[in-house]
Design goal:
This protein has 221 residues and is of the alpha/beta class. It has eight helices and seven strands, in the order H-H-H-E-H-E-H-E-H-E-H-E-H-E-E. Strands 3-2-1-4-5-7-6 form a seven-stranded mixed sheet, with helices on both faces. Helix 3 packs parallel to helix 4 and helix 6 packs parallel to helix 7. The chain is globular and about 50 Å long.
């Protein structure tokens, strides 16, 4: 979990942002409000939000999925990048944090694009599959509890179309995944997930060292 790209010193990071970041004012406001929460590190970095929005635009995505909303920075970045008739199904369990997200979706005039489902995400994903929505999504973003990453990934892989993209957050875990002395449950879960995904021939794969590490998995046709 990191609010900036992992591994850059402050001087280089500031330069990086100064020549690349085009953060809409509404996203800046949300980011700054979220800094007031004790767990603000759960918010994605602004450069990651911009990167994900670019991916959505490059794909021409119209239907997207998010597992883990928090205060809504990633969902707002994606919703702003979607066309007027685009759709984002957002999964979370927190009424408190998603209330902040709802407020900013409304303020940005993208609330009509977002369908928030407040329930355990595995249940929501199973409901989407049961409703016959397999292979109907273009893009999925996973950023929730780490022990359930395999379940979120497998269901998302069924839900996105061939040629669709899954982005998975926190795969570098502030460097702890590379430290054999660190053996807490979350770190072990991410290590195991990364290792499994590296062998998954159903997807083309790239781990991008932006923010806290973002794995991109392109579903093969």
């Amino acid at each position: 979990m990191s609010k900036k790209t992992f591994g850059l010193d402050n001087q280089l990071y500031d330069y990086f942002l100064s020549v690349s970041l085009r953060e809409p004012e509404i996203l800046r406001q949300l980011r700054e409000e979220t800094l007031g929460y004790h767990n603000a590190v759960m918010q994605i970095a602004p450069e990651q939000g911009q990167f994900m929005a670019l991916l959505v635009q490059l794909m021409g995505a119209t239907k997207t999925l998010e597992v883990g909303v928090f205060t809504g920075y990633s969902s707002l970045a994606v919703a702003l990048a979607l066309p007027a008739d685009g759709k984002l199904v957002a999964c979370d369990v927190s009424e408190e944090y998603t209330a902040v997200a709802r407020r900013y979706w409304e303020k940005a005039e993208v609330a009509h694009k977002v369908e928030l489902r407040l329930a355990p995400a595995l249940e929501t994903l199973d409901e989407l599959l049961a409703a016959g929505l397999a292979e109907t999504f273009d893009f999925a973003f996973i950023d929730a509890d780490k022990k359930n990453y395999p379940g979120y990934y497998e269901r998302s892989l069924q839900l996105i179309r061939p040629g669709g993209l899954i982005a998975i957050d926190n795969v570098l875990w502030s460097g702890r995944v590379a430290d054999s002395q660190v053996q807490d449950n979350n770190t072990q879960a991410i290590r195991a997930f990364n290792e499994k995904l590296s062998q998954d021939e159903r997807v083309a794969l790239s781990l991008v060292p932006i923010a806290d590490g973002l794995t991109l998995a392109l579903k093969r046709r």
